[in-house]
Records
---
Amino acid sequence: MNWFNPYYRCTRLVTLTLSLIVLLAVLIGGGQPALAHRPHHVVTEVQISPRFSEDETLFIVVRNNLYKSIDAGNSWQRLVDGLDSQNLSGLALSQQNRERLYLSTRGDGVYRSTDGGLSWTQQVNGLGSRDLEAIAVSPNNDNLILVAGHDGGLYRSDNGGDQWQSVWMENQRITSLSFTPDNPQVIFVGTAEGEVHRSDDAGTTWVRSSQLDETGAITAIAPSTNFSQDNQLWLGTETAGVFSSSDGGNQFTAINSDLPDLQITDLLALAPDGGQPQLLLSTWDAGFFRSDDGGQTWNPAQGELAKDVQADELEEPHFYGLATSPAALAEGYVFMGGFDSLYRSEDGGQQWQQLETLSPDVVMAFDISPNYAQDQTLALGTYVNGIYLTKDGGQSWQRPSRGLHLPWFTNNFEQQYQDPRRYFHVAFSPNYGNDQTLFVSILWTKLLRSTDGGVSWQVVDLPSETRGVTLLVSPNFAEDETVYVAGQYGTFFRSTDGGRNFQTVADIGAPGGNDAPSFVASPNFIEDGILLATGPGGIFQSSDRAETWTRLTSDPAWETRRNLQIAISPNYAADGTIFVGTDAGVFWSTDAGASWQPLAGLGDFADDYIEAIAVSPEFEGDRTLVVSIRGQGLWRSVDGGQSFDQIGDSKLLFSKLDRIPSAGMAIQFSPNYGEDNTLYAMGDPNTALYRSRDQGLTWETLRVRDLELADPSLVEQGQIYLKVYRGRILRVGLAAVLGLVSYGVLSWFTRRRTLPIPRAVIPVVGTVVIFSSSLVILFK
C-alpha cells in the first residue's frame, strides 16, 4: 500500500478529522435544558371553611394577597373588594357561618366579610391601635372576636367588630390567641415573654396562669376539645418546643421526645372521632409532625417537604400555620402554609403535595402596539411562563419560543435554583409599524430584543448587575436608536444602537421598598429631551439623555411614599401636567414638577393606596384620567382630575400583584382611544387581560390559553450548543489545529527518510500526542 498516495492521504486526514469530532462530542456532552424551579410563594395564613367537606373552600394570604379556593386549593380567586389595607396580618373564620370572615392588618384595623370574602368593610370603632397582629373568633359565637396589637394590647368585640374595647392594658405583646372549643368563657393568650394568661369571662378580664422560662414567645395554644372535663392544654414555643398542661394552664411539662426542631410555628388539637385529641404540629425548619398520644411521641411526615434556601437567607420560617377541622381531618385533609408554597395532605399529614398559589402564568406586564389601530397587536410577559403576543386585540394568542429556551439565559444545561425568566416589563418601539422591534426585560440584569415582531429574541446583558429592569424606548427611536433602562437600585443604562449594547450613564441611589422604578419620557422629547423617573425621595428629571438628574420633590413626605407611578400629560409641553400615583393618594403638578399638590378630586379616597394610574392620549381634549384604588375599584375623571366617578366592576382589581415587583403599567389606553374607546388592564390571578370598549364602563376578560414553549428546532439546538460550549469548542478547535499542523510537519519530515517503522505511524502518533497534550493544557 502506498501511504503517500493522495487517496490514502485524504482518507487518513478524513479519519483523523472524524476522530477529533467524536472526541469533541464526548467532551461537550449531550445535556438538555433542565426545567427550573419557580420563585417562592410565601403563604403566611391559611384557613378552611367550617364546611370544607361540602364546599372545599379555603383562604390564604400569599405575599400579602388574599386568595380563595373552592376546589381544595387547585385554583384561586383574588379577593379585593373593600380591602384597601396595605398589610394583611391575620385571618379568622366563623365556625357557625361560612360566609363570615375577619382580617387583621398592620395599620388599618380589622376588616369583616359577610359574603365569603367577596367584599369587605373596615371595622375600627374603639380600636386604640390599628396596627394589629393575631386575630381569633370564638368557635361558639362568631360575634365574639379578639385581636392583638402589634406593640401590645388586646381588643375585644362582642358584636362582630362593630365596636371594640381594650381589655389588656399591659405593653406585653400577645403572640397567640385561643378559645376553648367546649367552653365559650375560657380563653388563653400567650405573650412574647413566654407568659400564659387566662380569661374565664369571655375575654373581659385576664389573669396570668403561668410563666415559661427560656422558651421565647408562645407561638401557639391548643386547648383540648374536651377541656371542660380534662383541663388539658398544649403550647408551642419559639425556641423550646411543645409543652403540655393537665391542670388548665397552671403547670407545664415539655413533651419534645422525637422532635428534631423546637421552633414551633403552629399547633392544633382535634378529635375527629370524639376520642383522644390528635395533635398536629408545624415547625420552623422540619415541617409537619403528628401525635396520637397527647404529645408523648411525634411522627414526622413521610418524605422530605420541599424547602427554599432563601428562607434561611432571609431568616424566615420554612413552614407557617396549619388548617384543618375535625370533619376535614377525618377525610385526611390538612393544609400547611410555607415559604416556598402551600402544602396539602390528603392522608392526615403523612404525604404532602405543593399547590400552585401565585400562578407562573399571571401577567406581570403588557404593552400595546403604537400601531394598534392597524395591527391590533399586544404583547405580555408572565411571572415565569413566557411571552405571549396577539394580533387581533386579544382574541387569540401565540407564544414565541426562538431565543427563549433556558440555556440562552444561563449559558449551561444545569438545573437552576430559580428560573431566571421572570418577565418584568414590555415595551414596543414607537416605530414598530416599520421596524417590528420590541423589548422585554426580566427581573435581573438582562433584557430581550426582537426585530421581527416577536417571532425570535436575542438576550442582551446589561453592563452591571441590577434588579428591576424597567424599559423606556426613545420616542425618537427611528432616528436615534436609543433605549433607556432603569434599575431598581437607581442605576440608569443607555443604548444608542437599537438595544444591542448598553452603557451605564447615571446612578441616583436606591429608594426604599421593593417597587420597580417608573420611567417616562416627555411627549415632546425630541425637542426638550426630558425624562422623568422615580428614585429615593420621589421624582427625578433629566434633560441630557439620562446622564444627570435633578430631584423635583423636595417635601420630606416623599421619602416614605411607595409604589410611585408617573403618568404624564400628552400635552405636557403646553400644560406641564404630571400625575403621580402613590400609596398615599395621587399628587399632581401643573408646572413641570416645580410644585406638587394632592389631587383633591378623589374626595374620601384622596390618601388611599393607588394601584394604577393612566392618562388618556387625548387628554388635551377629553381631560380623561383613570385610577385604580386598592379595595375601591376603578375611578375615572373627565375634567382633568377635579372630580371622579366609579366605573367598572369593583370586584376586579386592576393592579400589579402585591409584593411581586414588576414594571408593568396595570391600565393602558389604546393609542387610538379617541376613535375606539378601548382600554386594557391586568390584575387577574391567571393568564388574562381585561378589555373595555366603552371608555371603562364595562370590562371583559380575555383569557390567554396556556401554550407550551415549543422545542427548539435542529438549527436552534445547534445554536444553543454553540453558545453554551463555545469556549470548549474553541479550545478543542485550537488543539485540533495544532494536531493537524503537527501531522503535516511530521509527514513532511519523514517523507524521504528510512525509518525502522512505517512512515505513517509517526505523523499519526505525533498528532495524537500533540492533540491530547494541547487538550490537557487548554482544559486545565
---
Amino acid sequence: MTTALNTMQPARLAIFIALALAGVSSTLYASETFNTELVELDNPGMGKADLSAFESGSQAPGTYHVDIILDDRLLETRDIRFMAVKDANGSETLQPCLSIGQLKAWGVKTALFPQLDAAEGECADLRAIPQASADFQFGAQRLAISIPQAAIDLPARGYVPPDMWDEGITAAMLNYSLSGANSRARSGAGTRSDSQYANLRPGINVDPWRLRNYTTWSRDASGQDKWDNVYTLMQRAIIPLQAQLTLGDSSAPADVFDSMPFRGVQLASDDDMLPDSLKGYAPVVRGIARTNAQVVVRQNGYQIYQSYVAPGAFEIADMYPTGGAGDLDVTIVEADGSEQHFTLPYASLPVLQREGRLKYALTAGQYRSYNRSEEKTPFGQLTGIYGLPHGITLYGGVQGADKYQSAALGMGKNMGDLGAVSADVTQGWSTPEHTAKTSGQSWRARYSKNFITTGTNFSIAGYRYSTRGYYGMQDVLGSYGDSSALQDRRRNRAELTMSQTLGDNLGALTLSAAREDYWNDGKSMASWSVGYSNYWHNISYGLTWTYSKNVRSASENRKSQKNADHDQLLSFNVSIPLDKFLPQTWANYGMNASSNNGTTHNVGLNGVALENRALSWNVQQGYGTEGVGNTGNVNADYKGTYGEVTAGYGYDKNSERLNYGLQGGILAHADGITLSQPLGETSVLIKAPGAYYVDIRNQPGVRTDFRGYTVVSNLSVYRKNDLTLDPETMPDDVELEINTRTVTPTRGAVVRADYLPKSGRRVLMTLTDNDRAVPFGAVVTLVGDESGSFIVGDRGQVYLTGMREQGTLVATWGSQSSQQCRADFTLPNHSTYGGIADMRATCRQER
C-alpha cells in the first residue's frame, strides 16, 4: 500500500519532523507525553487513538497472573486484581487489590495496623503501613511488595500457609500393574513355565477423606492362583494437629519400637506438613544379578513388587508406598532357578527433633499378620519424640497386650562436630505360647556423622538383645497360632554404612556391612560390600566387591549338606555415551565374578528415544563360565499418555523367556474418565479443554488426551508444585494465556489445575474503511466474547487469537461514539502461514 509518507518530498518531510519534534520537546519538562500525530501519518482521515493510558507507562486495569515478591522473596504465583489509582503526582498507576487475609497469609502483622480498615475480601490500604509500597512490574508480570521487617512475622523457609493447601476434588481411581513371563526350554535341562502377576490399587477421595485398597494376584508356573489383600484403609489429614488419622490396615511407626502391622485406628504426626527447613521414605533396592533374573520384594510377608532385570548391578527406586514400615525381604531368582536373599531395613530413624517439636503416634487395634493362622490379638501403642534445648531429644513409648507389655526410653544428642548419637533401652514382659512368663531388655545405640571437610559420611547402628528373655511384641503375638514365630530371635545386630569422596575427579568409595546372630542354634549372617565409582569425560564406571556368609542353625544343618553358605562377588561396569554417533545412546559393559558361580561378561546398548524421552530401551549380549554359556536380552519401556508398556526377551543355553507388563491409572471425576500413567500417592488432574495432545514439561510421556485432560503424579505434598503445558506442542487453533499453574495438595489428594485455553483460529487482520486504517493503539474486542482484547498495530493490522469462523469485531480508539467501528468477518478456508490466516475486513464507523 502506498502511504502519504512515501509521497512527501524530502524537504517537506524534514520540516514536518522538525515541527513534530519541537512539539514534543515543548512538554518535556512537564511530563512524558507522546505526540499521537506521528502514528497517524498513514490515515489522517480516521482520527487518532486516545493513548493517554500509555503515556505514563500504565496498563489497563484487570486481573493478571503475577509472581508475588515480598521483600525480595518469591511467595507465590497467582491471579491478582489491579485497579487504576492516582498517586501523589496525579499519575495513574495500577495497584493490587489485596485482602487482609492475603496479607496475613504472607506474614504481615495486620493486627498492628487497624487503619488497613478492610473487611475480608476487600482491598486493604497498604498506605496504612508506614513505608510500605507495591510496584507492578508489568513487563515481567511481577508484583513487588515492600513492607518494613518490623511489620512482618517472617515464616520459615518453604512455609506454605495451611489455607492454601488443597484437599482436592471428589474422584475415584484405579492403579493397575500387570506383568507376566512365558518361558520355554531350549535344551533338555530347561523347563517350560508361565507366570503372571497383578496388583490393583483402587481408591476414592471425598473431601479430606481417602479410601485406599491394595490387592495383589499371582499365578505360578503350576497354574495356582493366589489373591492377597495387602491393606484396606481410610485416611485423612488433621491439619490443626499436623497429623494423619488412619482407620483400617496399616503399620505403627518404627521410630521407637519395631514396626507393628495392625487393623484399627492410628493418629500419627505427619512431618511433611512442616516446611523443609523445619523437618528433622520408599527405599531404593540395589543388588547384583548373575543372569536374566526375577526380583521379588516382600514386606511383612506380602509380595509388594516384582520385576525382571538383566545380569549385573540393578537398582529399583519405583516401588509403591505400602502404608507402613517393616524390613524388605528381597529375593533374586536367577535363570537357573537358584536364589539370592537379603534383607533391606526399610525405616531410617531420624530421631532428633528441633527444640519444641513433638512427634507422636497413638495406635490401637488388632495385630494383623499375613499368616492367617496367627491370632488377631488386640494391642495398643503410644510413642513420643520431643526436642529439648541444647540439641537433646527425648523419646520413648509403651506397648500393651494381653500377653505382652513393654516400655522404652531413649535420648539423642546432637554433638556438633562430633556427630549425632542416640541410645535407648526397651524393657519387655511377655508370655509366648507354650512358654513361661519372661522378661528382658533390648539395648540400642546409633551414631551418624558427615565430615564435610573430608567428604566422609557414615552411620552405624548397633542392636543388642542383652538377655535371652527379651521378645518383641510381634514375636510373642505371632507365636499364638504359628510355632515358628520364635525361631529367629536376633541377639546382636550391627550395621555400618559409609561413603567417602576422594577429591576432584577421583571418584567416591562406599562401604556397607551388616552382621547379626540369633539365640537359637548358633544361626548367624554377615555381609560386606565395598564399591568405587567415578566418571571421566562423561564415561562412568564402577567396581563393587561383596562378601556374604550365612551360618545355618542346627535344625537347618540337618536339611543341608553344609552348615554355612559363603560367596564373594566382584562386579565391574562402564557406560560410554555415544552422542556423537547416536543421540541419547550409551554403550555399556559389565563383568560379574562369583566364587561359587563363575564369571559372566555382558556388553550392550541402552538409550531413550521419541518425543519427551517417552521410550527407553536396552540390548545386551553376554557370556558366562561354569556352564552358563551365551546369554542375551532386549527390553523396552514406553511411557505414553494412557499408561506404560514394558516388554522384554531374554535367553540362555537352557531356556528363553518373554516378559511383558502394562501399568497405568484410571481416574473418574466430574468431567469424565481420564487414563494416565500410574498414579502416585498424590496427583493433579490437568483440565485444559480443547488443548489436546499437549506435552507436560518435565513429565516423560505425559501429554493431554484427545479432550485436553491428563494426570500428573508424584507431587510434593503440602508444597507448591508448578505444572507447565508446553506451548510448542499446542495445537494451531488453541491459545493459552497462562500455561503454568501452581497447586499445593494435601496427602493423597487429587487436585485440579484449570487452564483456560482459547480455541479458535489465529488471524492477522487488517481493518480499514475506504482504505483508511484503524488508528494505531485502538482496542479490538469480539462481540459476544469480551473476556479478551487486542491492540491494533501499524497500518490497521491486529493479531487475533481464538477466533470463530465468523463474527463481528468492535474497534475503539476513544470515548466518543465516532471513535469506534464495527467489522463483520468470515475467515478464509485455509491459513496462509504457520497456521495464521491473513485477511482484510471493512470496519465501518458509527454514524
---
Amino acid sequence: MSEVSLTSAFDLLPPEIRSALAARGIVEPTPAQEEAIPLILSGENVLLIAPTGYGKTEAAVLPLLARITRESSRGEGIKLLYISPLRALNRDLKDRIRWMAQSVGLSVAVRHGDTTQSERRRQAVQPPDVLVTTPETLQVLLVGRRLRAHMKAIRAVVIDEVHELVDDKRGVQLSAALERLKELVGRHFQVVALSATVGNPELVGKVFFDGEPFRIVDVTATKEMKLKVLYPEVTDEDVEVASSAATDPGVVSRLRTIVSIVSESESTLLFTNTRSAAEALGHRLSRWFPRLAVAVHHSSLSRDVRIEVEKALKSGELDTLVSTSSLELGIDVGHVDLVIQYMSPRQATRLVQRVGRSGHRVGEVSRGVIIASDPDEFLEALALCRRAKSGELEEPKVPQKPLDVALHQVVGMLLEYRSLPTRRALATLRRAYPFRTLSGEELLRTLRYIHSTWNRPLWLSDDGEIVSLPARRENTYRYYFENLSTIPDERRYPVVDEASGMLIGYLDEAFVLDHLYPGVKFVFKGAVWVFRRIEANRVIVSRADDPTGAIPSWVGEDLPVPMDVALEVGRIRRLVLEETRRSGVKAAARRVIEEYPFASIEDATRALAIIEDQVNSGVPTGTDRQIVLEGFSNYVVVHACAGTLVNRTLSRLLSHIIVESTGLGVLSNEDPYRVILRPASVEVVMQAIDRLKAEDLESLLLKVLPRTGRFAVRVLQVAKRMGLVSRWASVRELSLKKIVEAYEGTPVYEEAISESLLKDYDIQGLRTLLERLSSGEIELITVKGREPSPIAWLGLQRSQFYLEILPPERLEQILLRTAKARILSTDLVVVCPSCWSWWTTIRVSTLLESTQGLRCPACGSEALAAFSGKWAQRAIEAVEAARETGRPSVPDSELADRAFRLGLLTKRFGKTALVASAARGVDPEDLRDLLLKHSTVDDDFFRELVRRESEAIRRRLL
C-alpha cells in the first residue's frame, strides 16, 4: 500500500461509491473522512470526534458499505445497524444514508416507536440491508423472533451522537444491549462511534467498545470558533419600556441586544438552558418585537410542532429559533450563521456543541455570542470560553452498575432464551464496561427482591442458580416493553391563581413534595404566593400580601456548573480584586480582557463594578483561595466558589448540622458561588463547618437524603424502571414519606442512592474543599454587618431570597410603582358619545401633563369617553361607521351604553375620570365609586384603582 500514491481517502472506496460521490458534487473528503475512512476500511473500531457538518455519517457509512459489499454475501438480513439517540435525527439520516446504500445496491429502512405496523411487517418479511434505529428500539429488536434472525447477518454497528448517551443510563443500557447483540450474532462485528466534542474520549470508547481495541480520530482542532460575551448596558429607554411592561430593565436590555444581533444575521439559533426559559424568551420576543419572526423548540412540544419550526428555520421563514438542548444534536435546520446563548451555558462542552451548530460547513467559522445576565454569569462565561477554546472539557460521569438497567437487561435475556443460568446473565452484563464491577451477590439480591414482588416479571430458583420466565408472562412483557426508556418521566404541576384562574407556570414535583403545604409562602415568577391546595393535579395558590418567610422556588434542573469552572471564576475575582485595589476597576477590566479576550473593556468594566463596590463595602470576596462567611440580619452567606453540586452538598449538610445543634428549622439555597442559610449566625455556621471536617461526609449525607423531595423522586424513578410502580404514578399520590420508607433496604433504595450521589451531589469535591481549608490552602474569613454586601445581595437576587427580606411596606411600594407605570403608559382612545363624529388617542401621562381640558372639536361636549384594551378598537370602528352614515348613533348598544356612562363621569370628574378609564376591566359604576372617594390622581387613587382591577377579575371568573 505504501507504494501506491493516493490523492485522498475516497480513492480507497469502490468505483460505484466514488461515482455516487461525484454525482452529488462531493470531490474532496473532509478532515474527518480523510482520517477515518482508511481505518474503518481496515476493519478497526473507531471513535470519530468531529464538529457538526464534517460528514461524520458519511465517514462511517461509506467504508462500512464498501466492506459489507466486499465481504458478505447478498443474502437476506440486516447487515448494518445505525443507532441514533433521537427519532427526529432518523428522519434526516434515512435520506442521507439511502443514496450511499443505493450506490452499492443495498436497501435502507427506519425503525422506531412511530414506525407503522405495516412497515414493521414489511421489515420482518423483507429486512433492509441497513436499519436506522434508536437505543430503545434495539431492545425490541433483540427479543423479536423474526428480527433476531435477520440481525444475525450484522457486520457493523454505527452509534451516532454518543456524547449524548455516555453519561446517563441510556448509554449503559446500550452498552449492555451491544453485548447481547454480540451473543446473538455469534461473531465479531465492527463498531464505529460518532461524537461531537467530548471530554475524555478514552472513557467514551470504553463504554461503547466494551473492552475491544479501538482507535480515536479527533479532528475538532481543525474547526475555528469565535466566541463573544456581552453584558448589555441598561439605557433610559430600557427603563421606560420595563416600567410599562412591569419587568426588570435588565431583561429589556438583553432582549433589545438579541433583536439587534438577530437583525444583522441571516439565520440564528437562540439557546437557553431550560424549557421554561425558552418559552418565556420566545413569548417576550414575539410580544415586544412583533416584526421578529421567532418560534420555540424543545422536547416537550409535539413532534409535528418541532418538525414545522425546523422547516421554517431552514426555509428562511424565521429570524431566530429559541431552543433548549433539543437542537444541540445534528437535526438539519439548514445554514445557521450565528448561535446566541442566553445566559451562561454553564459547561464548556455544552458551549462547544451549541456554537458548533453555526457555520457548520467545513472551512466555515462557528460563531457564538453569550449574553450574560449578571456579573457572576459574565465571569463564568469568560471562563467557559477560554476552556472551550483550549479544549478543557468536562469529563462524562458514567453510571456504574445501575441495578434498574441490570434487571431490565436480564428480563430481556429471558425473552430471548426463556431460561438461563444466573452466572451467564452476570457474565454478559460484566462484559459491558459500566457493569464490569457488578458482583454476583448484587445481581442475585436484585433478582431475589424482584422475584418476591406480587407482579414479578421473572422466576428465580431457590438456590439462585437459574433465572426463568414465570408461568404467567403478561407481567414480563408489560414490564419489559413499558420500560424500554431509561429517561425518567418528569412530573410538573401547573400553578394556578385561585382568584383569576390564570395559569402562572409549572413547578417540579420534587419542590411541591419538599416544601408545599397549606399556608406556606413561596416565591415564583417574581411574586410571592400562598399555597392553598392540590386540586385535579393543579397547585392552587393566591397572592401573598406579606412576603415575610416566603421560600424560593425552583423549576427544572439547570445544568450544574462544575467545580473547576467555579474555581476559575474565583481566580478571576482574585485577579480583579488585586488590580482594583492597585489601579481601579477599569485597569482590572483591561487585565481580565487581556487574558480572556472575549468581551469589550466597556462590558467588563460594567460587570466588574460590583467587585469595586464590594471592595468599598469592606467585606471580603469569595475567591479560589478564600471562603467568606458573611452574616447580616438572620442570614449567613457562605461565599464559596465551589460549583453547583459541591455547594448543594455543603448546603444540605450545614442545614442538617445546624438543625441538630440548635433545634431550629433552617432554609437554605445555593448557587455555584455561595450557600445562603436562614436563620443562622456566623458562629453557628463556623461550628458546623468545623464539624464537617471531622465527619464521614457520605454517611452524613445518607442521613439527609431520605428527607428531601429530590431523593423521593429518584426512588420513584427507579421503582418505575423496575416495574414496581406505574410509569404514570405521582409521588404526591403515593406519599413522599411512605414511598421512601417502603423501599428502604431494597435494591430500589440502593440504586436511588447511587443515582443521587452521581447526579445531585459531589461528596469528593466537598471533601477536597474541606481538605484545602484544613491545610490552609484556602482561608476561611468571617464578617458581620447590618446589610448584605453587593455580592451577597447578588446571590439573594439569584436565589429569589431577596423578596423575603423586603418589608411588606417596601414591597407594596414596588408593586404600586409598577402599576402606576403601567397605567401612565397606557394609550387611551377618546371618543365623543354625544355626536360620535370624533376620536383621538392620548397617553395617560401626556393627559396629566396637559394644562388644558379635553373637549370634542365637533360639538364642544366635555362628556368624553376613554377606552383602552379591547374596547379601544370597537370605539374607533363605531366612530368611523357613524361618520359614514352621518348619524350620531352606533349599533353596538353595549359600547354606546358604556360610552354614555363614562362620558357622564368625565363631565363630572374631568381628567381624573379619563385616567381611571385606563383600568383593566373595571365597570363605570365601580369607577364612579372610586372617583367619589378619590377625585385627585395620587398614590391613594392608584392603590384603589389596582384593587378595583383585582376585584373585577375575580368577579368575572367566579
---
Amino acid sequence: MAPQKRTRDSVDQPTPSTSLLKAEKSKKTKRSHEPGSYDAQAAPAGKKVKFGEDGSSKDVGQRPATLLSEEVDFPRGGGVTLEELNKSTGTTAMEVDGQPVPKKVIKRAEGGKKDKKGKQKADASVSVKSDTIRVEHLNYKRLEPGQRLFGQITSILPLALIVSLPNQLMGHVPIVNVSTQLTARLEATPSNSSEAEEEEEEEEDNDGVPSLSQMFKPGQYVSCMAKQVRPVSSTIDFGAKPRDEEEKAARRVELSIRPTEVNEAVGTGDLRAGFNITGAIQSVEDHGYIVDLGIKDVSGFIPYKDKSNPDERRLSVGQVVSSTVVKLSENKRLCTLSVEPDAIQTASLTEATSAHALLPGTLVSALVTAVVPSGLNLQVLGYFGGTIELFHLPSGADVKEGDKVKARILWDIPGSSPPRFALSLLPHVIRLTPPSIQPIPVQESKKSKKKTEIISEDAPTLREAYPVGMILEAVKVTRVESEWGLVCEVTEGVGAFVHISQISDSLIPQLSSTSGTWRLGSSHRARVIGYHALDGLLLLSFKPSVLELEYMQVADVEVGKRLKGTIVRLRESGLVVALSDKVTGLVTPQHYADIKLKHPERKFKEGATIKCQVLNVNPERSRVLLTLKKSLLDSTLPILAAFEDAKIGMVTPGVVQRIEERFVILEYYGGVKALVPLNELTDTQVSSTSGLFTMGQVVKSRIISIDKDQHRLTASIRQAAPSFQGPVDISKVEVGSTVSGTVSAVHDENVVLSLDDPESGRALLSVSNLANARGTTVPQLRSSLENGERILGLSVISVNAEKALVIVSAAKPKEKSKPKTGISSSLRIDALEEGQTVSGRITQTMGTGIGVRLSSHVVGRLHATDVADDYTGPSAVHPAEGSVVEVAIVRVDKNLKRVDVSMRKSRLEPPSKPKIVDREITKIEEL
C-alpha cells in the first residue's frame, strides 16, 4: 500500500498550529465526528478527546496510555518520492494534504484502550508526567538553525571539522565557526607575517596559528549549534572534493562550536560544581589559561597544575576545550575549570535551574516513565521530558518502567513545552569514547542486583575492526523500517543499518517484516560503506553492484597495480579515468604516453577502456594518479612505491621530474623521489645536464645511497646500465688462498682478471710476476697474452674489501699457503699475539730488516738473524721481494704499532724440534 500523506504530516508537523485546531473544531461535518478520525495531536496538552452520543467531542481528564507504538514514523525518508511510487505502483494520484484516510486512522485507533462503555479513546497529545510521548527522531528537514546538538568529530580537514550528529546526520564546522579568538588570529595572520619572520624560532612556535588538526582529534565530542541547513542540491567548497559519502553529507549542515553561541542561554546560576561547559582559550597567563565561556561578565580559568597531560603541548589561543566547573568565585566573575577527562566524563547534573542549563552532552539523571516499541519515555531531573530512540539503547538492554538511569543529552526539541530532550544510553556516548566492537558483558551487583557494565579499554574501534569496503558474509536483519531501511546485527553488540536505497539495484518502494527477501530474521551478504560514529552504527549495502566493486574508496587502490579504467572526460589538467563506480583517477598530460601528444583529444574518447598503472594514491586529498606510459606498463623491474622499500643496489624505473644544471630529480611510484648527481648521469664526463634528458622521460636508475634521517635517496643512471659492473662481495676471499680467473684487460704494469669465485670479482696480477712465473720476458708475455685466457693457481696476496679488489701472484703456492689462524685482509695489530703464524708478502729491504706485509693494515719487520736457524744453511737466503712467506709473530708493540716476525723453523714448527745452529739473540749482551 502506498504511504499516506497523513504520515508525512504527522512527522514533519507534530504539533498543529492554533488556527488549524480552530478550523478542525469548527467543522461540523459527519467525517469530523467519527471516532478515530480526530488527529490526536490536535488535542490540547494534558487532555484527551471523548465523543458523545450526538457526535460532538468534549475534553476529559486523561489517564496514561501507550499510543505512540502504532504511530508510523519515517523521519529520514530516502526511499522513493510520492511521484516515483505512483509510477511504480500504477496508482493515479496520492491523497491531498489534510484529507483524512479513514482506514489508516481506524487501524491506529483499534490499538488503543477502551473505556467501560466500550468506546474507543482518542490518542493523547504530549504530557510529560503521565502520558507517553512521541519518541523523537531528527532529520535534515526538522533540523532548525539555532538548535543545539551533541556531536563527535570523525575527520579533520584544513578548513573544517567533519562531525557525526545524532540519528545518522552529518555536519561540518568551518574554521571561522570555531571561536572568535581563532577567527581574529586568522584575520591578523597576513598583516603580522612579516613581523613573525623577524622573531625568534621559539616565539614563532608560540605565536603561529595552529591548524585544526593540532587543536582537535578524531573521536573528540563537541557541543555545537546548527547555523544553516542547505538543500541536497547545494554544495560548499572545503578546498577539495569530498573523500567519501560521509564528508559529502556533512556539507549540508553548517555548525558552530563558538562558546558565545552554544552557551548563549547559560546563566551564572548554572555554573555549579560538576557542570560541563565548553570554552575558548582567550589568553595564556603565568599560572594558567583565561577561558571565554560566552557568558557575560564571567571568565573561566584553567590552572596549569590541572592539565591532564603535562607532556603535551600547551593549549593555543582560540582553541575550544571541554571542561567541568570546579568552583565559582564569590563575586561570580571567575569560574575555575578542570579539563581532566575523568572529571568531564563522570560529571552529571541532578538538578537544573532552567532548560537552558541542559547543554548537549550533559549527563543527567532520569526516570523511565514508559517503554514503547519505538524507545523510551523519560522524566529528566523531575520536570523535563525526554525520549530515547532504539538506536541509542544498548544492545540487549533490559530497561523497565520506573528504572532510574543516567543518560547523556543529544539535542533539544525546539518548540516543546515543557522542554523536551533526546538522550542516549549508548556506552560509548556515556563514556565519551569512540564506539568499540566489543560486546559489553554484564555482571550483577550483589547489593543492587542490577547489571553493571564491564568494559575493556583495549577493544578496537568500529573503524579499525570494520574498514570501508570490508565484505560481511552473514548480516542478520533485526528490525524492519518499511519505508526507511533495515536495522541489522553484524555480531553481538555491533549494530548496522542498511538504507532502503542500498538494499537492491532495483527500486524498492516498501519493505515488509513478515515476507519477502529482507524479512525479519533473514541473513544477507553485505559490504561496509561507512559509519555513524555518534550512533555507533555501521552503514552497509546489500546491493550486488556494490558487493562486486573492486574499489570502494581511494584508500583501497594499490600503488603500482596495473588495471583497466574507463575514460570519463578529458580536461586541461588531465584525463579523468573511472576505476569503479566510487573511485576515479587522473592521468596528467606528462603521463599520456612516452612522447608528448599534440592532440590527445584524438586518442582519448569518452567511454573507451584503457590500460593504466597506479602511480600514487593520496587518500587525504581523495586523489589517484595514473600513468599510460608504455615503458612503465611493460617494465619487468621491481617498482619503488615507498621510501621504506628502497635498498642499496636496487634497479628501478623512474620518471625525470626536474632538471637542474648539476643534478636531476627522479620520481618513482608513491611520490618517492631521488637525486641523481651530475657524475652519475652518464659514463662520459659532462659539465652540465643540458641536453641529456627531457621532462617526463622514463629512465632506469640504481639506488646508491639512503639517508633515513633526512629521508633522502641518491640514485645513479650510469650504474643502471647493463654494461656497468657493480661492486662484488669479496669478503670470503682469504689471503693465501688459491684462485683462478680470466684475463679481461692487460695494462702497462698489471693484468686485470675476472675471478671465477666470487663471480665477476676483479683481481690484479703483476705483469713482471707472471713473466717470472712463466720464465719469459715482459715483452714476450704481452705479445702472447690474450683477453679471455684463463690463468689457474693464483695465490691471493691481499684483499681490499672497500674497492672490491684482490691482489694475486702467479708464484706457486706452498703446501701451507693458508694461514693456520685463518686471518684475512681485515687483520689488525690488535688481533696479533706472540707465537701466531700468518702469511705475508715481502715488500722491501730496510736497514733494520725486511718488510713483510701481513695485511692491508699491518706491516711486520723480519730481522736478518730471524730468517733461519742456521745462518750458513740453504734456507738462510733472504726471500725475494714480492714473494709470499709464512712468518711467526715474535713481538707486538701496540703502542708503537710495531710487529717483529721470524721465519725460523723453530718458531714456525716448534713441535718438530728442529736443530738450532744459531740461536736467537734477544739481548745485546748475547753477542
